[in-house]
Structure formats: C-alpha cells, structure tokens
C-alpha cells in the first residue's frame, strides 16, 4: 500500500509541476518507453513491426482525439465564471446521473469512463482552486498528448 501512496504522490506532484509550467518526468518517461517499444521489429517493418505499427497508429489516433477533448474542456473552463466549488458540485451531480444511468444500463463502458473523466476534472479544479490554472494543465496535457502521438505515428 505505501507504494501506491508514493506513486499517487508522484503523480500529484507532476500535475502540480505541470500547472506551474515545469517539465514532467512522468510524461517524459512514457515517451521514452513508447519510443523504445515502437522501435521493436525494425520500426514498423515485418510482421511484428507491422502489428506494432498498427497498434501505435491506433494509439496515436486515440491520443490525438483525447488531446482535442482536453483542449475543448480547457477552453470551456477558461470561460467559466463563479466559484470553483459550485462547478465541482455540478460535476458531482453529473456523476450521480451517470452512476444512475450505469446502474440502469450495465455493461456500457462509456458511462464509467465519462464518470472517471469528470471525477478527475473535479479533483483538478478542487486541488488547484482556479479555472485558469486547471485550463493551463489541460492545455499542457493536450500538447503533450499531441507531441507523443506525433512521435509514435
């Protein structure tokens, strides 16, 4: 259990560093790992390389799509007024509705994913306490997703 707490603490510190414009070792490590794995099989040639290439192309597309979502949410956060706590309460109400929908229609992964996404946005807002800082974090994540996607495609 202490290892989990340590890893969560590291992730939290990376997010705080990201909010303040500092480089993030976690995403740099992920990039290095993906680059190393992508190079297996001759960088996309041959059967194994071709399979890896297809997987990484799909992953790059997913990361690009995710980057667009993060960028859109960041843009919306930047335009919000009012208190962060009221937004967090609205997100909590949305999560309750998603939980109810998930109970009524089990087996739909999108409902669980949406709930987790909104939970993370709420946690980000609560920890930073500021729309502009949260938007900056999401924009930076979006940029890093696009960078990694471009490098693994």
Approximate helicity band? over 70%
Low-confidence stretches: 40-48
- Estimate the strand proportion: under 5%
Average pLDDT over all residues: 78
Run of helices and strands = HHHHHHH
Supply the number of structural domains: 1
Number of helices: 7
State the shape.
Answer: globular
Provide an overview of this structure:
The protein has 153 residues and is mainly α. The protein has one domain. It has seven helices and no strands. The chain has helices spanning 2-19, 25-38, 40-44, 46-78, 84-104, 109-128, 131-152. Helix 2 packs parallel to helix 7. The N and C termini lie far apart (36 Å).
Tell me the layout of helices and strands.
Layout: H1 2-19, H2 25-38, H3 40-44, H4 46-78, H5 84-104, H6 109-128, H7 131-152
